Records
---
Amino acid sequence: MEIKHFSFGTSENNRFVKIIRIVFGVVCIAVAIYWFSFNIKSLKADGTLWITIIFLTGFGFYQIWSGLGRATRFIEITPDYIRLKKNPILPPLKMSSGEIEKIELFPLNLIFFLKSKKRILLRFGTTYHEINEKIKDEILSFAESNNIPLEIVEEKI
C-alpha cells in the first residue's frame, strides 16, 4: 500500500494563483502599514482603525501562507500512519497505527480514538461526496491491515 493523499476540497494550486495570493497578501500588509503610519499621527485613532489594521495584517499573512502552499487541508494514509491536517494554520497531526485504539465511521464524521484517551474528530463536507467515499474506503483498508477495531455507525434521521 503506497501513500494515499486526499485534499479536502478543490483549490487552485497552479503557479499563477499562488503568485496572485502572495501579491495580494503583501498588498494587504502594505495597506495596513500605511494606515497605521498615516493615522497614528492624527489624534482620532479609534477602535475601528485598530480593527482594520489587525484584520488587514492577519488576512495578508494568511494569503501569503496560502500562496506558499502551507494552508492546504489534507489526509494522508500510509501503511503505518495517518497524517491529518484539518486546520489551515496548525501543523499536520501524525497518528501511527499503534497509537490508534479504535475508529468510528459516521456518514459525515470520522472519529479516531487514541490510546492516550484523546479523540480526534474529522468532519466531512457535503460538497465533495466522491472524495469522502474514497477516504472512508482507505480508512477501512488501513484499519483492516493494522487490526484496528472499526465501527460503522449509521445515523437515523
Note: Residues 101 and 117 are 9 Å apart (CA to CA).
---
Amino acid sequence: MSSIDPYGRKVYPITSETGQKDYYEHLNYWRVCYHNNNPLIIPTTDDAREYMRLQEIANKLYGCTDKESRNKLRQLEVYHTRYDWRPQKTGDDTFVGLISPSGEPLLPDSFADIFTQFDAINNKPSFIPVSNGEAWALVSLTNPPVLMTDFVYSAIIPERWERKLFFVQDADTKKWGALSVSYPFLRIKPYKGCLPLLETLMPQIADEIYEDELMAEDETTTFFMTRRGDKIGILTNFGYSDIIFDRYETENTTYAFRLIRNDRKKARLADYWHPDGKTCQ
C-alpha cells in the first residue's frame, strides 16, 4: 500500500477508493520480517487440520533435538508464514456464507457479501462486516450469529493491525466515523457466550481517514488522521479531536501531539490517550 504526504505527514489512505482496494494487500504475502512479494499458498482442509494439530503440540517440540521434532517445527513455521488462512465464501450468486480453511462453518449462506480479510485460524475476530445487497452491517461470528448493527453503512473497514476499530461510512451522508470493540468487566458468571460491545468512538463526521504512526525506538503505535474539507484532526483508540486543525506535530517518545491552527498562536496539546487535548492544556 502506497503512502501519500498531505499536511506534512506520511500517511496511508484508508477510506479512499484506492485505499479500500489496497488496505489489506499485506495479507497476500508471506508473513516474515522482511519485505517480499511471495504469494501465500492456498491450504487444503488437511493442511489446516495438520497446522492446528502442530500448534497444539508445539510446546512439547521446542527443545527436542531429534529429527522428527525439528521437521515438525519447521513445517509449523512454514504453515505459519507461507499459507493463507483467510476464510472462503460458500453459497451461490444470491446468498453467501463463510467457512474456515479447516472446514468449520463460520456464517450461513444468508448474505449478499461478506468480509474475508482476516485469519480464520489464529486471529478470528468477534465481528465482521456483511452486506444485504444494499448496505453493510456487523455480525458476530457466534453460533447462531448475532447482527450487531443495522444495515446502515455504505462501507465498513476493519482496522488492519489490532482489529479493535471499524471505520464506518454513513449510507446517506457518506461521512466516515469509527466504532470500537470493548470488553467490559463482567461481574456475573458464566462469562462464556458473552459478546464484547460495539461503541461509537467517533461519529460520522470525516470526509476521509488516513493511517499514521508514532515511532518510539523500535515500537510503532498506529493512530489516524481525519479530514473534513481542508481541515484535519486525529483519532486514536481512546477518542478523537475536533477536525479544525491545519497540521499537527508529534513527539514520538511521549506519544504527544501539537495540534496547530494557522489562526492561533498557541497549539493545542494532546496525547495518544487524550486526543481531544482536554487534560493536556
Note: The CA atoms of residues 137 and 151 lie 5 Å apart.
---
Amino acid sequence: MKMPDYLMVSEGTAPAPMAYPIGETGFSFKESERPNLALTLWIDADAIPPAARAVLQSKGRFEALTGLIRVLTEVDGFGRFRAGWVLGRTTGGLVSIVVRDANHCSAKGLRDDAAFSVRQAERYCATSAAVLVQQSDANGGRGAREALESAFMASYVQPDRLYRSELHSECPVWFACLSSGVH
C-alpha cells in the first residue's frame, strides 16, 4: 500500500458540505458542479503538486522536495480553503511553505503569510521559508503578481519563477506566483 507523502491536519471541525447559491435566484450548485479551486490539488493530492514542486526545485536548496505535514489555515464562508501551510523536506533540510489562492491575496496578507512561514520555520528548525500564490485561472495573475511585488519589494514578478525575498529574517524567504497550469 502506497502511503501519501504527508499528513493532513485541519483546525477545528470541517464545515458540512454546502450547496453554493447562484446570485439571488435561489438555485445552487452542488460541490461537484463548482469550478475547480486554485488549491484543490494542494488539498486533495497525496503529494505536493508536481509542477509546483518543479518551480521550487528550480533552486538547488529545494531538491527532492516532499511534503510532511499540511494544515489548512484559512477558509471562506462556504468552507472552501483560501490558504494552507506545508512543512516539507528537502535534501538540504526542512522548508516551511505557505500557499495562498491568488484570488484572495493582498500585499499585507502576503507579508503576514511570510511572517507566519518564518515563525513555523523557526518552530520546526527549517532552513527555508516560502510563500506561494496559486492561480486558478489566467484572470487573477496580474493582481497576484502585483501583490507579491508590493509585499516583497520586487520589480517584476514573472509566473512560475522562484524569487528570494530581501526581507530580513533568520532563514531565507522565497516566493513565487504559480500559474493556473502549474498545479
Note: Confidence is low (pLDDT under 50) at residues 13-18.
